[in-house]
Amino acid sequence: MAKLETKYLGLSLKNPIVVSSSGLTNSIDRIAKVVEAGAGAVVLKSLFEEQINYEINSAIYKGEGFDYPEAMDYIKGYTRDNAVGEYLKLIKDAKAKFDVPVIASINCFTADEWVDFAQQIEQAGADAMELNVFMVNTDKNSDPAEYEKLYYDVVNNVSKVVSIPIAIKLGSNFANLVNVVNKISVSGAKGVVMFNRFYEPDIDIDKMSITSSEVFSSPSDIRRTLRWVAIMSDKVDNIDISASTGIHDGEAVIKQLLAGATTVQVCSAVYKNGAQVIAQMKSKLESWMDEKGYSSIDDFRGKMNYGKIPDPQLYERAQFMKYFSKYE
């Protein structure tokens, strides 16, 4: 029987399937469903500084203390402390109830809050922390290097104040992604999650308004992550990679592990098909490993990454036109 145990961020996981930060992990009842289905670890729904500030501003806008500065300060403090307190309680309760690693997730935009949230999360007992970082650079005169430095600073500042392992969840919009991940790896992060699935705008042409595009990923979205997992696992050897987006079945799990992923993160597949899809992924992984004669995941992880295949250019963009040249 194949053994699915693996290590991620120095943590022992029963298997490499991690349920990513989402509504699937925002309560004990919901976490219980994915753990019972076989999740190897869970990433709690992110603590968003932006959401906390929105709630603060909403309360103030409604007139609660608007005319009294002292009352406004109280509202700000109470709303913030209440939101953070609920999150810390979720960490403690999850740690007490479940026997899988509990990874916290935070999304901030001010340096002080990154550090403050991180310290409180560690004290609450989280096994690790995922920094959910995304910044939209709209300044045409800005230096891309300064934009990237913000990511390194976040990781560096947080890693200085906590001892639990840190992973950073990234988008793919960098001129040199390999260089960015390499610098992140020496800034204090033990892992990188590729890639974040962000809110993306759409336009309603009838109502002439901005709407949200499709929330869930599709199986075809694996193409975006598979290439970079395969490249990164060869080029940067001192950081764990968690593959995210487009993982909807056991075959996709196997592909990402072959590309070099340490773990995979699932979300949309669980929303669409229920928690049982996790058990199905595990079953497919086990049967495939038995069929191929692999006794552990380490026996084949990275076997198809950029440096292991005969022609690594197959993972490069130059092959795109060559692939489609037959369609004329």
TrEMBL record:
Pfam families: DHO_dh (PF01180). The keyword Oxidoreductase applies. It comes from Carboxylicivirga linearis. Its cofactor is FMN. The lineage of its organism: Bacteria, Pseudomonadati, Bacteroidota, Bacteroidia, Marinilabiliales. Residues 4-289 form the Dihydroorotate dehydrogenase catalytic domain. The keyword Signal does not apply. Gene3D superfamilies: Aldolase class I (3.20.20.70). This is Dihydroorotate dehydrogenase-like protein. Pathway: Pyrimidine metabolism; UMP biosynthesis via de novo pathway. It comes from the Bacteria. Keywords: Flavoprotein, FMN, Oxidoreductase, Pyrimidine biosynthesis. InterPro entries: Aldolase_TIM, DHO_dehydrogenase, Dihydroorotate_DH_1_2, Dihydroorotate_DH_cat. Signal peptide: none annotated.
